[in-house]
User: Fold these one by one.
Assistant:
Number 1:
Amino acid sequence: MPTPVIAVTMGDPSGIGPEIIVKALARPDVHALCRPVVIGDAARLREAAAIVGATVTVRPVARPADGLGAAGTIDCIDLKTVPPGHPFGVMSAVSGEAAYRAIAKAAELCRTGETDAICTAPLNKEALHAAGHKFPGHTELLAHLTGTPEVSMMLVGPRLRVIHVTTHIGLVDAVAKIEPGLVERTIARGRATLVAAGLGEPRIGVCAINPHAGENGLFGHGEEAAKIDPAVATCRARGWSVEGPLPGDTLFFRAYRGDFDLVVAMYHDQGHIPIKVMGLEAGVNITVGLPVIRTSVDHGTAFDIAGRGIADEGSMVEALRQAAELAVRH
């Protein structure tokens, strides 16, 4: 296919999103992978370029097809959502609304076929809520915008991939929500994604909920037997390479050394902590199950360093690379 067109959402304009986008899109190697079009605010991007010292031209365009896709130029669908002098590093409803409008526009462009994938800079959940958009994050917001009843979050690092059965809910609620059907569907979504990416027959390890996988009923209340075992059995009956439930403390080590291609985590921190320990600059978040391709940086808005020009663009570059590769294989 031709070079994929990637809609890059600016995220929360008070965070580091504008800076990491400018840094990433100033790199010629990124333009060799894809044709990025930023959905956001042109003036904010110019401000960010001055902060990071990037020699780039921010060029407003009406449609993705109008973009040049050239190194040294940042094509931007300018939503004009950021007022002059808007501060960095401060949570606000203005920034939350700007982030929402960017992702809504990106979803629309993907649905109409004008772009091939979405790559998102981070938003702030509190700001999103302050603007009246009551979603836990990008994953749930994109599911709503695309009319998708159920999606999964997959985190990808250099030597580890993790898909989550539950994400942005409290731990007690997460355990209550886990049930065999949800576990089975999560395994299936993760496997399908890796097969589509050319992995062949992925080796999948499924985390337990309790320490030591429940130690044959010594820990917990039989959650492994009731909630996970039936899903694993169903997947294995299909001929898939699935093992579990396995203790999380050893499963992630085994996956890191190469025994598994994908780990199925039961809740948010169980999966996020191992990926983020390996380095925020290398991690990528992929939403699995959407009718559109969506990747994201694996970090937040970093209000504490926003506007200082020191944010690392590595995760954004990797997210763009993953979006381009998935779009080519889609």
Note: The two ends are 10 Å apart (CA to CA).
Number 2:
Amino acid sequence: MKYTRRSFVKNFSMAAGAASLAPGLLLSASRARAATLAKGEPIKVGILFSLTGGLAVPEEDSALVMQYAIDEINEAGGINGSPIEPIIVDAKSDMNVYAQKMRELILRDRVISVFGCYTSASRKAVMPTVMSRDNLLFYPTCYEGKECSQNIVCTGPLANQHSQELIPYMVENFGKRVFFVGSNYVWPKESNKNARIWLDDAGGELLGEEYVPLGSSEFGSVLNKIRRAKPDFIFSTVVGASDIAFHRQFKQAGFNAEDMPIASLTTGEIETRAMGIEYGAGHFLSAPYFQALDNPTNKKFVDGFLGSKYGKSGVTHYNMEETYNSAYVFKAAIEKAIDENGMENVTPRLIRDAAAGVRLSADVSPEGEVWVDENNFNTWLVPKIGQCQEDGSFKIVKTADSHVEPLPYSIYPDAGTCTAQGLKLPSGSIRKDVI
């Protein structure tokens, strides 16, 4: 089935209009009031994803699934009798727009928390505002680690929950000679630092490492280098529309998954549907969630979402599920904060503190039980590896034996340890807000 770009204008025109500023209007931090809650009044949250541009392929559906989760929560009575009110904005795949919209959401719309961002570049663009205003970002996707902020909760995998399983699996099953290809920003580069260590541990050999600009669709020179190097497999950290272009051009250049599979950290059901399943078949993905997971909660999630007004994509996806889970982590955390402090006293920081140790049971989380680490506010997950089939679904070929602890500084043991108070240095001193 061919992928067609869905328009969000019809669905989100009112919300997007409410979240836009007239040109030249400046927000003054001195006159911006902090978010407050009142029983029976809506709890405002921001949804900050790209609905247009090169990052919209995975991010549009994350915005949709977040609304689906909010509808579920509201239909079940909301939070302490109050409905969640989402304010949805389009970051337009532009890092400057992410930063601008985050300021608007916090300073003008006075949201209590924000859900969003997909790339580490966008996360780093918004976090200075989140930290300076002591607000809270729920970041629902994989990232590289090497951060310790007191204003973020992460529900996706860190590097040690991601490629640490994938690299040795590929070496064992396809060969030791590897070529790295990534988008040119912090997450692919830092992820590849991790991958090089695990490749060396597995006895592999790195033949080449190439990066293309974020959003680029030209891979001719990269493919020529791959042809000359003759690797056994490709390790890809290419994202968004670039990922689709890479897989298409890979096949069009005469390469195939049987002889040289691509092992990716990003190419899931949505990307495969967008590129055409013939371009994804045979390749591999590491993720904690696949639509094919066989459990009652995932069946309910898949059937419910795809049968709803939001399920236009026709598939579910790791980033969507991690976003869905972030809504329920928020629900549990804010309910705890209300119980302990009273609704009118709840702040974004109290929600963050209450998120420590929040556990989503297997009847809530489609990927199975997960929980938020009490110190670093990342999530304990069970890594999985899937191979794309001819129908675009993924067959799970390996599942970790148990939950894997999130380690933001897994390859930097001398940097310190991420704690709830900040990065604890070997000297014992604490550094706050390390991004």
Note: The radius of gyration is 21 Å.
Number 3:
Amino acid sequence: MRIIKTLLGIYVVLVFIGCQEKAIKSTESNTGEEDNSTITQEQIDHLGITDVEHLSAASKRALAWPTDLGNEWFLEFNQLEPLKGDLAYEEGVIRRDPSAMVKEDGKYYVWYSKGVGPTQGFDGDIENEKVFPWDRCDIWYATSTDGITWKEEGIAVARGEKGAYDDRSVFTVEIMKHEDMYYLTYQTVKSPYNKRVKNQIGLAWSTSPNGPWIKSKEPILSPADNGIWEGDDPNDRFSVKKKGDFDSHKVHDPCILPFKGKFYLYYKGEQMGEDITFGGRQIRHGVAIADNPKGPYVKSPYNPISNSGHEICVWPYNGGIASLITTDGPEKNTIQWAEDGVNFNIMASIPSPPHAIGLNRAVDSEKEPTEVLKWGLTHVYNSRDYQSIMRFTSRKKEKY
């Protein structure tokens, strides 16, 4: 805990160079010269500093780090492994975005998006064709005794009837078990599926992982409504008069965790007029909080709670919440942790993590920081049109 608390201030000094002078012990004298008298020989030797009178910005940041960072948050991912049985790759079928796994009666359960057929994009017959691989999907589930060979059990949650908020597609699902109830939260799209469509988040619940599932009549979370489009072209998602909040266009990748007597719904936000920043999309995460699993959920005033990331991958650890941040933004490929579930700080930089991770929630997440990442599920693009679910494993990083 002492190490974690020590790290809480590192976030700013690692990312925002403009604050570096305030982050180190060295101070400016009245003459404008740096006072480096507090830098020890041990620090100089450990960091390989050549001349304390000429410190680069990188050396100043390094001097602000504690000397006992440790290695418990760091890991490396192994090569992905194909699954066997019904979840093996199948030409013409999309299986993607696996949920976390839960284990009941000796079997692992996983839920995922499933669809069929190629993707035509937005230039074809939008009313009858697919614009994305996750378009025209339903939520299916499968079971396994070993996490490798899977049996597909059938549909868990289907698309809604025409005119419903989820009539076009239901996808990117996550599972939460709480007090003998099971909750599936997922993305929804209503027809017509154009580039300006605003995704929402739905919820279904059951007393059994096998269902039947009762769907919420209305979304439990929607995008902010304070952005303003420029013009009326439904397939121009970059032209805006006002961008609005970080989630003014879409709310994606939902995951609910019980935390501190409440329910924290973590999600990915997409902004109208999305930009490219730090070589990736302008994607950030938010959280909405409720007293009951079914809501109502209220967005945190601290949103966005990340400046980076893509798919949501969160788990409880050491009284707080850990998050694997991937793909987009200046802090991509890091593991972060927040004692309060909101104010996240970088704990480790992780090379090449899998995408769309489905965690193994059957393990004890408190055993060590990355216990839930030892093995789980992910998806890969077998082609532009078709994706399949794979198994990932990881190992702790050792000294060379």
Note: The helical segments are 2-7, 10-15, 20-23, 41-47, 57-64.
